[in-house]
Amino acid sequence: MASLSPSQLARYARHVSLPEVGPEGQAHLRDASVLIVGAGGLGSPAALYLAGAGVGTIGMVDFDVVEVSNLQRQILHGVSQVGRPKVDSAAARLSDLNPEVAVETFSTRLTSETALAILGRFDLTIDGSDNFPTRYLVNDASVLLGKPFVSGSIDRFAGQISVFGVDRGPCYRCLFPEPPPRDLVPNCAVAGVLGVVPGIVGTLQATEAIKLILGIGAPLVGRILLYDTLAATVREVTVGPDPSCAVCGDRPTVTALIDYQNFCGEGSGGAAATEITAPDLARRREADPPIAILDIRDEWEWEIGRIAGARHIPLPQLADRLGELDARTEVVTARQVLAAAGFRARTLRGGIDAWAADVDPSVPRY
């Protein structure tokens, strides 16, 4: 029975009984290795189902710790794990689910210096990241290594999934040659997300990974699956490889990993030039002239926690209340609206969460 032990045959009986899997396919899963980038909303269900399926080695890379606000969607973790590194929490949960699975953890930020070494240890990657620098990094590293990766992303009530980096298929850059302007892409902390959406998308990512390992079905290569939970609709968009792609095209110009923070406008230039860090803002508040802090979050967010001395004008009201502000004072937040009205404006990098983490821990994080 393809070298499966009696206990493995019992554990994976529902797999073994599938003709498309059988004992040989289950042995392939046991011998396979998958890296999951991000132990958050997407990585949680993906990791759980891969462990349950008997994928022999699962890698988890994440540099964050578990917070209470994660628990609404990041089902790998529980209240008892709050404050613990996410990869440690994930390893404990996966080992409890399936002790036969080897869990390799990387409690670090994936960078251009580390990506090739980490991704190179695994057969394929599931990208559960929530930012464009990491998505482009995973794409480029996967293409350079000649390994596939399963991409997933979410936005409020919707999600999308695709498989990139497969021979004769497109890569992520074929679809998105350039990242969108950073200010136009709010993260989950700003835009919000229905908790089940990453569960659905992450589970579909695990499904695609299993299909790739087993060589069954029709993986989402050259196809993007779009799922809208509110409308309960599923759409499919077909995409092909771009011969002019900078990474996988006929004449690639990106032949080594680059600075992805700068590429996405988050380095020393671009959007970063109009940002200020929480420690710098704390110092500037004591300077002469001081810097003004304008909080444009919703009322419920303001009630949870705020920066002492900040002024609160919800974003939908901002354009009509600009007269309440002093145009001679530099303002932090809502840069585009304020800059268009003649204000010197910057944004707080990381928002209120960065302030709570780096300056004032008494401010609740959510």
Write up this protein.
With 366 residues, the chain is α/β, with parallel strands linked by helices. The chain folds into 2 domains: 32-263, Rossmann fold (3-Layer(aba) Sandwich); 270-358, Rhodanese-like domain (Oxidized Rhodanese, domain 1). The protein has 16 helices and 13 strands. The strands form 2 sheets. The protein has an 8-stranded mixed β-sheet, with helices on both faces. The model is unreliable at 268-273 (pLDDT under 50).
- Report the helical percentage: 25-40%
- What integer value in Å does the Rg equal? 23 Å
Write the CATH architecture name of the largest domain: 3-Layer(aba) Sandwich
Shape annotation? globular
Could you tell me the mean pLDDT? 88
Level-1 CATH class name of the largest domain: Alpha Beta
Strand order, sheet with most strands: 3-2-1-4-5-6-7-8
Largest sheet: number of strands, sense, barrel closure:
8 strands, mixed
SSE order, as H and E?
HHHEHEHEHEHEEHHHEEHEHEHEHEHEH
Q: What is the domain tally?
A: 2
